[in-house]
Design a protein that fits this description.
Blueprint (H helix, E strand, L loop, with lengths): L2 H6 L26 H6 L2 H23 L8 H14 L1 H33 L1 H14 L8 H8 L3 H25 L3 H9 L4 H12 L1 H30 L4 H10 L3 H29 L9
Helix pairs in contact: 4-13, 5-6, 5-8, 5-11, 5-12, 6-8, 7-8, 8-11, 9-10, 11-12, 11-13, 12-13
């Protein structure tokens, strides 16, 4: 073999035999978690600690400010909340708001389902959804309340009208975006099974786009809840009755700031319950269970 060819060959490595190590001498491979580490892995406990910290900051700042008319303490707010619940007034106002919210939210979701189903089935439906979403999604729902009062008068239909507007476009837009993100493989599989129209939407598109649909439902819920409270501030003044929004407005006029904070606190707690209990249960039973979401 020539010297030039030998230089092109890779260098030979000496053979060796490595002894097997005893795993017992390596050391500690798995260590049990400490109590603090186990508690830190509980998301509910971490969030509770954050809430306690925020309440402590609230109490400290309000005590330092020492002006209950402007900013009551956390203890005064909790006392007003307990008093409102015990008297039944706050509970009655909350039930009134939730009833209207459920009706408006259900109507908005039903309208979004029909509009999105039409959009994914036909080209004219796609053009219609795209155009209407671009037109009405930026429009604040509360801005339509004067028209609702003009068209439907003083009553729940006016509130339901603005709630449908706040829910419809958020749910439709997220649902349609989820449908567009469905892979071609799933689409072809559905077509190969002969699925068309609503059966194709219900059996192929909806399960595949469920994470986006749930996101749209959560966004629509948040829009509907804050729109309802804002609308009740106006609607309550007009009719002399209402839910939590009217409770907040009425106590503001009476300079009962602690009751105002109690009403706001109730709005926040309902939002936390719906987000952390209702939607979390739906996610755990569907998209998280199926491995579609971490």
């Amino acid at each position: 073999m020539s010297a030039g060819r030998a230089a092109l060959l890779p260098p030979s490595r000496p053979e060796f035999e490595r002894e097997t190590l005893d795993a017992r001498n390596i050391g500690e491979i798995e260590r049990p978690l400490s109590l603090l580490e186990r508690l830190g892995n509980i998301a509910a406990l971490r969030r509770l600690l954050l809430l306690v910290l925020l309440a402590a900051v609230w109490q400290a700042y309000a005590s330092w400010l020492d002006n209950p008319l402007i900013f009551p303490t956390f203890a005064d707010t909790v006392a007003a909340l307990v008093k409102g619940v015990a008297s039944g007034e706050l509970v009655a106002r909350t039930v009134t708001s939730i009833k209207v919210l459920v009706m408006g939210y259900a109507a908005g979701v039903a309208a979004a389902a029909l509009l999105t189903g039409f959009a994914v089935s036909t080209r004219i439906g796609t053009d219609l959804l795209t155009t209407l979403t671009a037109m009405f999604n930026p429009l604040p729902a509360i801005a339509l309340l004067p028209l609702g009062l003009l068209w439907f008068g003083l009553g729940n239909p006016s509130l339901i009208f603005v709630l449908i507007h706040s829910v419809l476009w958020a749910v439709s837009l997220n649902t349609f975006s989820g449908f567009l993100a469905v892979s071609q493989t799933l689409r072809m599989a559905g077509h190969n099974y002969g699925l068309r129209g609503l059966r194709y939407v219900a059996r192929i598109l909806v399960p595949a786009a469920l994470p986006a649909i749930l996101t749209g439902l959560k966004v629509g819920w948040a829009f509907a809840w804050r729109t309802l409270i804002a609308a009740e501030l106006v609607f309550g003044v007009s009719s002399g009755s209402g839910g939590l929004g009217w409770f907040i407005y009425e106590n503001k006029n009476e300079l009962e700031t602690a009751n105002v904070f109690a009403g706001l606190f109730t709005v926040i707690m309902i939002g936390l319950v719906v987000e952390s209990v209702v939607f979390r249960a739906v996610e755990n039973g569907t998209v998280r269970k199926w491995g579609m979401q971490q």
